[in-house]
Amino acid sequence: MDTELLKTFLEVSRTRHFGRAAESLYLTQSAVSFRIRQLENQLGANLFTRHRNNIRLTPAGERLLPYAESLMNTWQLAKKEVVRSLQHTELSIGATASLWEAYLTPWLQALYQQREALQLEARVALRHSLVKQLHERQLDLLITTEPPKMDELASQQLSNFSLRLFSSAHRDKQAPMPYIKLEWGADFHQQESRMLEGDNVPVLTTTSAHLTRQLLETTGGCAFLPSQWEQE
């Protein structure tokens, strides 16, 4: 359906006058009448009743009105999105909360300081959700501790980082330390399991490095955090 026909229909329904609708649309009155007839022919129903200068919507016109408004709003949004995509190239980058908080946020800050016109989308989610988005082409770049094992995806190692076991400075050294489990990926989890006692049940499991650091003092516990945080 031609959106110009719907646009004309909406203007006539708003002004209830073919002449005023024509002025608003920068058309002749005959052009407005022709468009309305075209729309009526396509729908197989009269949309307006015309008695001299008294123009009203028919029941069919009343039913069409909300759909026409919705279609035109959707069309305007679609045009804006297309124009925006032509003006800017937006890159979507995904990572877990722990990676964003520990390593990627400073990198992103430095990137924006170098290039102010960047258009990026930073997504924070669980790894399996991000892998799914990457596979379905809803995500451009995934930064993770373990590359997905998919033939259609290309991977490249960016860098290495190290973790250290941090603990509360005010803990009771005679009492066993509660453990906070921070998700760093399956590979690290295997090493973690070998290092810790089998009955050491975490008091908290989280994906947030900042939350883990804040709760070390509260719980008097320990957790694996980025080594560079020791200097902070």
Automatic annotation (TrEMBL):
Lineage summary: Bacteria, Pseudomonadati, Pseudomonadota, Gammaproteobacteria, Enterobacterales
Species annotation: Serratia marcescens
Entry GO MF terms: DNA binding; DNA-binding transcription factor activity
Domain HTH lysR-type: 1-58
Keywords for this protein: DNA-binding, Repressor, Transcription, Transcription regulation
Protein name: HTH-type transcriptional regulator HdfR
SUPFAM superfamilies recorded: Periplasmic binding protein-like II (SSF53850), Winged helix' DNA-binding domain (SSF46785)
NCBIfam families the UniProt entry points to: PRK03601.1
Family: Belongs to the LysR transcriptional regulatory family.
